[in-house]
Amino acid sequence: MKKKILGALLSVAMVATMLVGCGTNQTSAPADNAATEDKADDAASADDAAPAAEANGKKVGVAMPTQSSERWINDGANMKEQLEALGYEVDLQYAEDDVQMQVSQIENMIASGVNCLVIASIDSSALVNVEAQAKEAGIPIIAYDRLLMDTDAVSYYATFDNKGVGTAIGKYIEEKKDLANTSETYTIEFFMGSPDDNNAHMLYAGLMEVLQPYLDNGTLVCKSGRTSFDDTCILRWSQETAQQNCENYLTGFYADEDLDICATAFDGFAYGCKAALEGAGYTEANWPMITGQDAELMATKNIISGKQTMSIYKDTRLLASKCVTMVQAVLEGAEPEINDTEQYDNGKIVVPSYLCTPVAVDQDNYKEIIVDGGYYTEEQLAE
Q1: What pLDDT does residue 48 have?
Q2: DSSP labels for 191-227?
Q3: What is the CA radius of gyration of the chain?
Q4: If 0-12 CB within 10 Å is exposed, 13-18 middle and 19+ buried, where does residue 374 land?
Q5: Which of 61, 181, 260, 306 has the fewest CB neighbours in a 10 Å radius?
Q6: pTM
Q7: How far is 322 from 299, CA to CA, in rounded Å?
Q8: Is the pLDDT of residue 35 over 90?
Q9: Any bridge partners for residue 93, and if so which?
Q10: Whole-angstrom distance, CA of residue 197 vs CA of residue 147
């Protein structure tokens, strides 16, 4: 199959819409140094939000899903640092993707007398009983990044625009491959997120809003036929499963034809696809487009080297900062800043939310967004 060069620049319109950063105003903004300075200011703002004395010895329990992904380590560390700077005691726990362990950790936090809970769940529907215990004890809950499902115990939700993440990935594929105008066809396979994570469903919806028309008209061809969420979801966001799936696709459907696009929902999946492709003998000459999410350090290095095409940058400093301001408002009896009261229905209530805007990064803009923004240094990326 004739290949198109992957290095075409994003259109001006896409750049303008995606380099917005995190804020209440969801409209486009110039991608200039002022934007990155504003991000740095926002990330540091929690330190100045209130004197430590106002914490009055209050304790915050922070339940994180796993340390197997770099982003969760950063999320937990950023939140702990910012909360402690405000004078709060912080109990930060990681459950290593063990649902029962996370339940036990939250039960222990409740028993220890925490004043607020921040929960990034492993299984969004598996914490209903322990959440009810927190509600009965008068402990407010803030869902972090992953919506807590089937409960009325959650007070607020801090996250990135998850449907927007999928839309951004879809738009990137659409514009880089010029799908609206090309006469060529491209093969594509999908690697979507965990079925017990509401974010994964929303990401898939945003992605398919963009790409489904091209699957329908034959511009995109999925030779495995696996395009539904149920057929492409990967439990617990497992990198190993993503690699196995990719290996199976390459063996079963691409022995005589190259795979052009790995549409993955997570940098870990991109690593798995990279390993499978290398094992199948793919080289720079026929290397496919590989998408991702989280702009992890390794993913950014892979983008620089050309082994991953793009990722969705989610500044954990900003999300942690927004969550910290929510915690502070709740504990002081104030109303936290909210910019969405419609999208996040958890089956019991529509959860008031604050959404940060995702940003697509690739070889063309990673330095401006990630390095100039202070997320990684040139030295880290060169190691």
Answers
A1: 42
A2: EB--TT-HHHHHHHHHHHHHHHHHHHTTSEE-TT---
A3: 21
A4: middle
A5: 181
A6: 0.80
A7: 25
A8: no
A9: 63
A10: 8
Q: What is the pLDDT of residue 55?
A: 60
- By DSSP bridging, strand 261-264 and strand 289-290 are parallel
* Separation between Cα atoms, residue 96 and residue 31, nearest integer Å: 37
- H/E stretch holding 259 reads none
Residues 6+ positions from 58 with CB-CB distance below 8 Å: 88, 89, 115, 116, 331
Could you tell me the CA-to-CA distances from 13 to 30, 74, 165, 171, 205 in Å, in that order? Answer: 11, 31, 17, 11, 22
Residues 86 and 327: beta-carbon distance below 8 Å: no
Q: What is the mean pLDDT of residues 80-93?
A: 96
CB atoms within 10 A of CB 377: 11
The percent of the chain in helix, strand and coil, each rounded to the nearest 5, is: 45, 15, 40
Question: For residue 201, which amino acid is it?
Answer: H
Shortest CA distance to 167 belongs to which of 356, 360, 318, 35? 360
Q: Which residue shows structure tokens 């892979």?
A: 302
| Element of type H or E holding 314 | none
Q: What is the pLDDT of residues 214-247, one digit of tens each?
A: 999 999 999 999 999 999 999 999 999 999 999 9
